[in-house]
UniProtKB/TrEMBL annotation:
<dbReference type="Pfam" id="PF00201">
    <property type="entry name" value="UDPGT"/>
</dbReference>
<keyword id="KW-0808">Transferase</keyword>
<keyword id="KW-0328">Glycosyltransferase</keyword>
<dbReference type="GO" id="GO:0008194">
    <property type="term" value="F:UDP-glycosyltransferase activity"/>
</dbReference>
<dbReference type="InterPro" id="IPR002213">
    <property type="entry name" value="UDP_glucos_trans"/>
</dbReference>
<protein>
    <recommendedName>
        <fullName>Glycosyltransferase</fullName>
        <ecNumber>2.4.1.-</ecNumber>
    </recommendedName>
</protein>
<dbReference type="InterPro" id="IPR035595">
    <property type="entry name" value="UDP_glycos_trans_CS"/>
</dbReference>
<comment type="similarity">
    <text>Belongs to the UDP-glycosyltransferase family.</text>
</comment>
Length: 493
């Protein structure tokens, strides 16, 4: 009798999920959105992070809480470990040198202690942990908490990296940067150039790190993806059936955001005040939005060519340059200052831009992007086609998905995986202008790409609505966690 009542109590107590995002805006932002999405389904959510990273997601969490009827989302703030980094340097966006990166890696290890402390004192029903905290697989297992991992990638890119890590296809390919490398075992024929891939010999540390991440993900309860079934169905099937891995697709999580303007920052660029007004003056679909996420840096020659390309394209553009780039005197092409001063064709945002607001404005007709997965999925959700300009990590694989599988983009032809800013391949202004022209044109190619982008946007929105595929995956995951809780905890009594 007592056992039956205890079991009933267990069933009624809301699930409690701890979110432990990796310390970079591209991980924190979707995790805050994901917490909003689970909280809206009655899950008690806590996000464990450090002060600067908490500030980044505070406004998104506050707005989500304002809209909630059930339990609120908490942010549990722990100090950033003292590893000799300057105050305020707490995430990947603020790191400037290899020395900083080494210290940051130490700090990431030291977060194990507050993570375990939370598990011991709060007994959450599950943790959604950033995949890069690969040690959290063992820590969670020691405390009997199921670990769901979040890498923040597409399923397509995750399948590509799994194929690379498992088969090391570079080993049998000539040491020529242009050599084509096939990734075995995938539903489509996927080929990358050698220069577009992580090199297991030249980047041995990275390779070993990703092997550990992949192994830890496989020992976990499962993985959550910011994606949706209808976007990459062959890769959902591949993941579940061929790889035998458990995954739930719960996105696009940005569609759960209640914070279209301030999402992802506590310091929106002052330029952003005027950007909706400027966009309002432009015809529908006439503006190219240009932004490369939170981590990418361009050299002065690259910025010079990008500015030339935007000018040569003849299109309206809104360009996010970030706050901390090289001085404009080092890269500004002749005549560009005058073009900007006229204010009719171009708008520059220095610092943090309200990307969701911009992408969803009817004036936006294309997005020049580095193919960071959040940006790509935000564009898909908004029905905006892309010019793809990948730089490193999963971005070259995401480009393949966008251009070759989904056919909602035009590739700019980037080939250079993660070389240093100073030596990075410089893409000429003419090539940039031509790619923008292809995407924005009214010819058959441009029209077909635009149509596909609009179709996908409808599917994305349907996926997160009541009864949609992502809505259902959230429900199934909650059911599994609830069932697991009842069986383990009542069994322990
Ligand atoms: N973002 C934004 N404003 C900016 C720069 C970035 O809102 O000025 C957001 C963008 O909407 C996305 C995230 O930051 O949600 C960047 O993630 P992504 O995966 O695209 O790139 P990363 O920065 O991780 O390379």
């Amino acid at each position: 009798m007592q056992l039956a009542m205890a079991a009933q109590d267990e069933q009624q107590r809301p699930l409690h999920i701890l979110f432990f995002p990796f310390l970079a805006p591209g991980h924190l932002i979707p995790i805050a959105d994901m917490a909003a999405l689970f909280a809206a389904r009655g899950v008690r959510c806590t996000i464990l992070t450090t002060p600067v990273n908490a500030a980044i997601i505070r406004s998104a969490v506050d707005r989500a809480n304002d809209a909630l009827a059930g339990p609120a989302i908490d942010i549990s703030v722990v100090p950033f470990p003292d590893v000799g980094l300057p105050p305020g340097v707490e995430n990947g966006m603020a790191l400037r040198s290899q020395g900083d990166r080494d210290k940051f890696a130490r700090a990431v290890q030291l977060l194990r202690e507050p993570f375990e402390h939370f598990l011991v004192h709060n007994h959450p029903d599950a943790v959604v942990a950033g995949s890069y905290f690969h040690w959290s697989a063992d820590a969670a297992a020691e405390h009997g908490v199921p670990r769901l991992t979040f890498l923040g990638s597409s399923m397509f890119a995750r399948s590509c990296s799994e194929s690379m890590l498992r088969n090391n296809p570079l080993a049998t390919v000539p040491d020529d940067p242009d050599a084509l490398v096939s990734l075995p075992g995938l539903p489509h024929r996927v080929e990358l150039r050698r220069s577009q891939m992580m090199d297991p010999v030249k980047q041995a540390d990275h390779w070993a790190f990703f092997q550990s991440v992949n192994a830890a993900d496989q020992r976990s309860f499962g993985e959550v993806f910011n994606s949706f079934h209808e976007l990459e169905p062959d890769y959902v099937e591949h993941y579940h059936t061929t790889l035998g891995r458990r995954a739930w697709l719960v996105g696009p999580v940005a569609l759960a955001s209640k914070d279209m303007a301030g999402r992802g920052t506590d310091a929106l660029s002052p330029d952003s005040d005027n950007c909706p007004g400027w966009l309002n003056t432009k015809p529908a679909g006439s503006v190219v939005y240009v932004s490369f996420g939170t981590l990418i840096r361009f050299s002065p020659p690259e910025l010079h060519q990008l500015a030339r390309g935007l000018e040569l394209s003849g299109r309206n553009f809104m360009w996010v340059t970030g706050a901390a780039g090289p001085d404009p005197s080092e890269w500004m092409p002749e005549g560009f200052t005058e073009l900007m001063a006229r204010g009719d064709r171009g708008f520059i945002i220095r610092g943090w831009a309200p990307q969701l607001l911009i992408l969803n404005h009817p004036a936006i007709g294309g997005f020049v992007t580095h193919c960071g997965w959040n940006s790509a999925l935000e564009a898909v959700s908004a029905g905006v086609p892309m010019v793809t300009w990948p730089r490193y990590a999963d971005q070259f694989s995401n480009e393949k998905l966008i251009v070759e599988v989904l056919k909602v983009g035009v590739s700019i032809g980037a080939k250079d995986y993660a070389s240093s800013v100073e030596t990075h391949q410089v893409i000429g202004g003419e090539v940039i202008a031509e790619s923008i022209g292809r995407l924005m044109s009214n010819n058959e190619e441009g029209g077909a790409i635009r149509k596909k982008a609009k179709d996908l946007s409808v599917k994305a929105r349907t996926a997160v609505e009541n009864g949609g595929s992502s809505y259902n995956d959230v429900g199934q995951l909650m059911d599994e966690l609830t069932a697991r809780r009842s069986s383990t905890k009542v069994g322990e009594m």
